[in-house]
Specification:
By secondary structure, the chain is mainly α. It has one domain. It is about 70% helix and about 0% strand. It contains 4 helices and no strands. It is globular and about 40 Å long. The protein starts with 6 loop residues before the first helix and ends in an 8-residue tail after the last helix.
């Protein structure tokens, strides 16, 4: 497995995902960092990560505008878990629970 090109951005995304899952983050903060990831991760070698983040950002938008606010946390926690799982499979396992 090759090293990730944007490890700091991956760490920031994972940190927000973990915060949201623990109940200390928010849909807004996760969406912001995912958008930053989309803008930062531009290398062709990691276009799959950028594409996935774009898809997840769309899911977060759907949550924001189609669910009642009381349902935002649980729904966005599911998205956060999906992001962690994807990034882990993509080679970020070394950053899981070490994103500080």
């Amino acid at each position: 497995m090759t090293a990730l090109i944007y490890p700091d951005m991956i760490r920031a995304i994972l940190r927000e995902c973990e915060s949201l899952i623990l109940g200390t983050g928010s849909l807004d903060s996760l969406q912001n960092v995912v958008q930053q990831g989309e803008a930062t991760i531009v290398a062709v070698e990691e276009k799959d990560i950028r594409s996935y983040l774009t898809s997840m950002e769309g899911d977060l938008e759907l949550i924001r505008f189609t669910l009642n606010e009381k349902d935002h946390l649980v729904a966005s926690q599911k998205v956060a878990r999906q992001i962690i799982d994807f990034l882990e499979q993509r080679g970020a396992a070394e950053f899981i629970n070490k994103s500080e």
